[in-house]
């Protein structure tokens, strides 16, 4: 028996480590968060007005605002390494699913992982642009574009998990549990898109759980058959 997902699992370990490191970098508190949010960086990604941005970072010219900007900027710059890792993990996992099952739909999931990476990278461009222009307030364009790139990332992740659900449903009891987590994540994505609220926080948490269980699966799953060629 082989472990066809093991290389993806190693990337997953690096992903977990980088995720924990980012938690130490991003600010854990903010002067005022939008209703339903309790994670500053997630609230920043989903802000939809100038007033919410101003509330998030606190009083102009204050030391607290300066510290918030510094922490957010550092986290968003380091986030580029993180997004490459999770995109590589999803890409490799999806390609392996395609090779194991000979189902082309999993190549589509791999393609979406590239689009998610682009969305995340462009999301960070907007976030860094907002903080750069925070003093003069001229960040309307970045705020408008932020919505689209944020949902390209978060919506793309939900779509990848949805595509992977059939693979897990055909597996063991544990794999079927992962499939149910994936479906729950998709439902939460839709609900949080329709109603920005605490649901966005819950959806974000469900994505983290889905990554964790998929990484564990990648590290532990054994397969009896040999992999077929990529194409």
Per DSSP, the total helix count is 8
Cα(first) to Cα(last) distance is 22 Å
Q: How much of the polypeptide forms β-strand, as a percent range? A: under 5%
Radius of gyration: 19 Å
Largest sheet: none
Average pLDDT reading: 94
Which residues form runs of ≥5 with pLDDT under 50? none
Task: Walk me through the structure.
- Helix 1 (6-25) runs antiparallel to helix 8 (198-220) and helix 6 runs antiparallel to helix 7.
- The longest helix is centred in the middle third of the chain and has 39 residues, at 63-101.
- The chain is elongated and about 60 Å long.
- Helix content is 76%, strand content 0%.
- 36% of the residues are buried.
- It contains 8 helices and no strands.
- The chain is mainly α and 231 residues long.
- The mean pLDDT is 94.
Label this structure with key terms.
mainly alpha; 231 residues
List the helices and strands and how they pair.
Layout: H1 6-25, H2 40-45, H3 50-57, H4 63-101, H5 105-132, H6 140-169, H7 173-194, H8 198-220
Helix pairs in contact: 1-4, 1-8, 4-5, 5-6, 6-7, 7-8
Summarize it.
The protein is an all-alpha fold and 231 residues long.
